[in-house]
Design goal:
Blueprint (H helix, E strand, L loop, with lengths): L1 E5 L2 E5 L1 H10 L2 H5 L5 E4 L2 E4 L11 E4 L4 E4 L5 E2 L1 H9 L3 H12 L11 H29 L4 H9 L4 H6 L3 E3 L4 H8 L4 H6 L3 E3 L7 E3 L4 E7 L5 E8 L7 E3 L15 H10 L6 E2 L3 H9 L5 E2 L8 H10 L4 E3 L4 H14 L10 E3 L7 H6 L7
Parallel strand pairs: 14-15, 14-16, 16-17
Antiparallel strand pairs: 1-2, 3-4, 4-5, 5-6, 6-7, 8-11, 9-10, 11-12, 12-13
């Protein structure tokens, strides 16, 4: 029996449950998400995902359920691999893999019926948000998403970056509502998640919250979709809208791109953590090689968001737009941070040229300036 302390609760996983995960999920498939796996004779080999090399020295022993790099000596199983690559704790990796394997996490004997219902509902909410993200992604690649695709092309967003950030398109009309209803999801759940709204003029009629917008999924610390940001494609206001507050999403507690930055820091601790202003800044910075880029979901930086930043880096870089609004936002961030500044908890501020933001500088070929 393996015991792991998480917060104040003790989480217990039996060796039998962990073996079920190993049996259902291929180690080679998981590793193949990060490096190209080849078959050489009876062996599976790859260039090591933990260090740079030209000739493969990373061996995957599928039957035994472990890997070993004969170059850097990295060694482990499916759980340790994801802990190292994604910066997750052991329980987080187990829960993530269990979901992929279609297994229910064993419940502690002390859980009440109310607790079990709440966990089941929360699991349903995550499922709906994931289905929604998949729907938006497919719409962007369809003929109906041509206007959004034109916008991403004009902004220089490459297909790999589009896939990394799971960009999508919310079509006009009530297409999402109809799609999710066909999948069996009930309107009250969709309303709780901020995906549909009830008409003020026609009570009982519901319409999609996001329509004709480029969509940015917002993730929690573990990379699960919990909300969305949507950018208008034509003229009009507001330019961006976020999901409303929901059981999964409290925007003052969430950092956009946090799980990607966490992965980048896990692979290279020297990766700078850059807190920019908006979604497009994060996308552009990431594409430009600054993979520790994040943003505060269009809000002023809160105490909780600062705490999240400091958990990844003792000295995050605040890099906001080079305009009056950006300067004021930086000053507000400093005021929020001042009571908490101490050794190991500091901030750096970047002042950009007037009228510029990280995205505009990178598109202008001024990466060196950043």
């Amino acid at each position: 029996m393996l015991l792991y302390q998480v917060s104040s609760n003790m989480v217990t996983f039996s060796s039998g449950f962990l073996d079920q995960i190993r049996q259902r999920i291929s180690l080679a498939d998981v590793i193949g998400r990060y490096t190209t796996v080849q078959k050489r004779g009876s062996n599976l080999i790859a260039c090591c995902p933990f260090h740079k090399e030209k000739s493969p020295s990373f061996y995957i022993y599928e039957e035994d359920g472990h890997y070993h790099c004969y170059g850097c000596k990295a060694h482990g199983d499916i759980f340790s691999f994801l802990m190292e690559k994604r910066g997750f704790s052991f329980p987080e990796v187990v829960e993530d893999l269990a979901g992929q394997a279609g297994l229910q996490i064993p419940q502690n004997g002390g859980d009440s019926e109310e607790d079990r219902r709440a966990k089941a509902e929360r699991g349903l909410f995550y499922e709906i948000m994931e289905k929604t993200a998949q729907f938006y992604e497919k719409q962007l690649l369809s003929n109906g998403g041509s206007s959004a695709k034109k916008y991403t092309d004009n902004r220089g967003i490459t297909l790999p970056t589009q896939k990394t950030f799971r960009l999508g398109y919310a079509p006009r009309g009530n297409v999402l509502h109809h799609h999710l209803s066909k999948l069996g999801y009930k309107t009250p759940a969709l309303q709780k998640l901020g995906l549909v709204q009830e008409s003020k003029d026609r009570p009982g009629d519901f319409y999609d919250y996001f329509r004709d917008r480029l969509m940015f999924p917002i993730w929690d610390k573990r990379g699960r979709v919990i909300a969305f940001g949507g950018r208008i494609l034509g003229t009009g206001h507001p330019k961006y809208i976020n999901s409303p507050e929901t059981p999964l999403f409290h925007k003052g507690d969430v950092i956009y791109g946090y799980h990607l930055a966490k992965q980048a820091k896990a692979q290279n601790k020297l990766t700078p953590l850059i807190c920019s202003e908006g979604y497009m800044d994060v996308v552009a910075l990431h594409q430009g090689g600054f993979q520790g880029a994040v943003a505060p979901n269009g809000t002023s930086i809160t105490e909780n968001q600062l705490d999240l930043l400091w958990k990844l880096d003792h000295e995050p870089i605040i890099c906001l737009d080079g305009d009056k609004a950006g300067e004021e936002a930086a000053l507000r961030a400093l005021k929020v941070a001042l009571p908490f500044l101490e050794a190991g908890k500091t901030l750096r501020f970047v002042s950009l040229p007037s009228g510029e933001d990280p995205d505009s500088l990178l598109r202008a070929g001024k990466k060196e300036l950043l």
